[in-house]
Model the fold of this input.
Amino acid sequence: MPLTSRAPAIALAAVAALGVGGAAASAHPFGPPLTATLTAEGTTVEVVWSGAEDDWMALGEWTGAFAAAGEESRTGTQILMESPEVRDYLLDNIAVTQQGQDCAGTWEGIEDLLDTGARLHFDCPTPVTTVDVRVTALTDINEAYRTVVTAGGQQTLFTATDPHHALDITQTAGDADRAPVLMLSSAGVAVLAVGAAWAFTARRRTRSAA
Done:
């Protein structure tokens, strides 16, 4: 379903149709994880954050972006991309520090909601190699949300109970080769465990029926 709305009531109807109405109670944290990619150049860090369509809709409802849009004739996508509520929320829930000093965050905007996501820019005191990163986006909606952050060829899982990590953004070819393995070890294990349990139950039912 496209992210469209002409007014908050229509936007909320679209949210309900996607199954994310009711904010925390009915958010969708159990699908693919949210993602963020960190790159560094000199003293700056760029973060690109994104989620699935229903995650964006949940974010728009949670932050009040749809309600603040009033009766304007804009699509849901346009509301989210232009929303100061979404901007402020992501700047509050994604942070970068270097040796105990905050890296000043700047909102760079959203060029494409689903394909690229939101861009944030952080200015650090000295040239960047290792930084401390905090990601808490959407965990206040539902603590089951998690974010896979890619930096320096490594992937790190951020969760409600483990939202801070020190990340080395210096990339090497060997680090990049290992990234898919780290992704599987953090987020994929749970998926594989659920699939194995389902297959075991299905086999037992088939044997009983026979």
Remarks:
- Residues 173-209 form the longest helix (37 residues).
- The beta strands are 34-41, 44-50, 94-98, 101-102, 104-112, 117-123, 130-135, 146-151, 154-159, 164-168.
- Residues 8-205 form one domain.
- The CA atoms of residues 153 and 172 lie 7 Å apart.
